[in-house]
């Protein structure tokens, strides 16, 4: 039975974006998997717990015998079908368990009996995790980093994506969050392990590139996730370019981004009542969350403006109904916070200006 053993083989496999059959129990999978991991377990959570208890009380042989009894007959056939269906869709995939041991080997054998030969990741998830962590740490130690800063709504993430064939760490994409009270995406954030593994894979893919790695200016926390310590420290010490964009333009950009990407609204299209109500509640919740910093009076004023904006928006669906209160929110809350932050990094600024000026620098 074939294995993906060397670092070179693992690198090629992960860089190709191939799928991985993760046969660990769901409770293990949800804590974090390898990039491309899909869970079709050999043992479910209860079965894994039972085998683990038997191992502790009676030893490995008794645990193995219990495992074979638990997944015999129809149960085994159902699981093998899930595996075979997976490899019909992903014929160039591989199988993985925690350490690349008994569970993935048993899966390989069952599939081989049915004429399906697939490789196993030697060392399993533990090895992939260690490999990607090492790649991220090596990148932080060996690579030069550059940071794109700018007031909220400047479009830093989108501008970074315009850099052509240059190393970029898209932190917000990896975290599935925009890093503010209004930054929640419509999809759940990944687990901390998945987040770090994604960053490690990105670092690995840029390992042979000689240029600096650009990333967006972020705080240590992005939503409920925390940037790895080494990466954050490197970012805190790296040269900075400040992207400039007028506040009114930033307000329009933020409004469109928030309404379209989070809720699927189309400018000028009347929203459904349930979705409109969800937006109303989400805005109120986000403003309430920042009331301590924003202040009670400003919060009440903004809540009144948002209610008025929502009344109009629910009837006509025009994004412009929200521009005024979003611009006030920038002026009163986000911009003062960022001005303070910029004052602390002024000694690292290597340039500032509009999008064109940044791209001219980054693409050279």
How would you characterize the overall build of this protein?
With 364 residues, the protein is of the alpha/beta class. It folds into 2 domains: 3-122, Oxidized Rhodanese, domain 1 (3-Layer(aba) Sandwich); 143-364, Rossmann fold (3-Layer(aba) Sandwich), CATH 3.40.50. Helices cover 57% and strands 10% of the residues. The chain is built from 17 helices and 12 strands. The strands form 4 sheets. Strands 7-8-6-11-12 form a 5-stranded parallel beta sheet. A hairpin with a 2-residue loop joins strand 9 and strand 10 (225-226). The two termini are 48 Å apart. 33% of the residues are buried.
Computed structural class: alpha/beta
Strand order of the largest sheet: 7-8-6-11-12
- In DSSP terms (H or I, runs of 4 or more residues), the helix count works out at 17
Give the CA-based shape: globular
Stretches with pLDDT under 50, minimum 5 residues:
none
Strand content: 5-15%
What separation lies between the terminal Cα atoms?
48 Å
Mean pLDDT rating: 92
The H-and-E topology, N to C, reads as EHEHEHHHEHEHEHEHHEEEHEHHHHHEH
Radius of gyration: 25 Å
Number of β-strand runs = 12
What percentage of residues falls in helices of 4 or more residues? 55-70%
CATH architecture of the largest domain: 3-Layer(aba) Sandwich
CATH topology of the largest domain: Rossmann fold
What is the level 1 CATH name of the largest domain? Alpha Beta
**How many domains would you count in the coordinates?**
2
Q: How can the largest sheet be summarized? A: 5 strands, parallel
């Amino acid at each position: 039975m074939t294995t993906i053993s060397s670092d070179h083989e693992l690198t090629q496999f992960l860089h190709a974006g191939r799928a991985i059959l993760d046969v660990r129990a769901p409770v293990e999978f949800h804590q974090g998997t390898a990039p491309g991991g899909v869970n079709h377990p050999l043992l479910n959570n209860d079965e894994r717990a039972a085998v683990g208890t038997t191992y502790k009380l009676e030893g490995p042989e008794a645990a193995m015998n219990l495992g074979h009894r638990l997944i015999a007959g129809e149960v085994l056939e159902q699981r093998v079908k899930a595996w075979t269906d997976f490899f019909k869709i992903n014929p160039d995939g591989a199988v993985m368990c925690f350490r690349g041991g008994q569970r993935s080997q048993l899966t390989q054998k069952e599939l081989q009996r049915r004429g399906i030969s697939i490789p196993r990741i030697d060392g399993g998830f533990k090895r992939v995790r260690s490999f990607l962590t090492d790649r991220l740490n090596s990148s932080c130690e060996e690579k030069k980093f550059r940071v794109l800063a700018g007031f909220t709504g400047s479009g830093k993430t989108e501008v970074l994506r315009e850099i052509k064939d240059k190393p970029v760490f898209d932190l917000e994409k990896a975290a599935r969050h925009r890093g503010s009270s209004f930054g929640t995406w419509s999809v759940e954030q990944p687990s901390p392990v998945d987040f770090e593994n994604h960053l490690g894979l990105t670092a690995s893919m840029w390992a042979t590139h000689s240029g600096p790695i650009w990333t967006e200016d972020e705080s240590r926390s992005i939503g409920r996730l925390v940037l790895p310590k080494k990466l954050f420290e490197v970012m805190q010490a790296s040269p900075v370019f400040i992207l400039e964009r007028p506040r009114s333009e930033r307000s329009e950009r933020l409004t469109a981004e928030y309404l379209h990407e989070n809720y699927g609204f189309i400018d000028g299209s009347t929203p459904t009542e349930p979705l409109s109500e969800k937006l109303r509640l989400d805005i109120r919740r986000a403003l309430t969350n920042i009331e301590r910093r924003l202040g009670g009076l400003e919060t009440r004023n903004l809540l009144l403006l948002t209610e008025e904006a929502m009344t109009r928006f629910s009837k006509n669906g025009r994004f412009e109904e929200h521009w005024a209160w979003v611009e006030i929110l920038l002026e009163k809350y986000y911009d003062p916070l960022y001005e303070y932050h910029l004052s602390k990094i002024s000694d690292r600024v290597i340039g500032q200006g509009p999008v064109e000026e940044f791209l001219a620098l980054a693409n050279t």
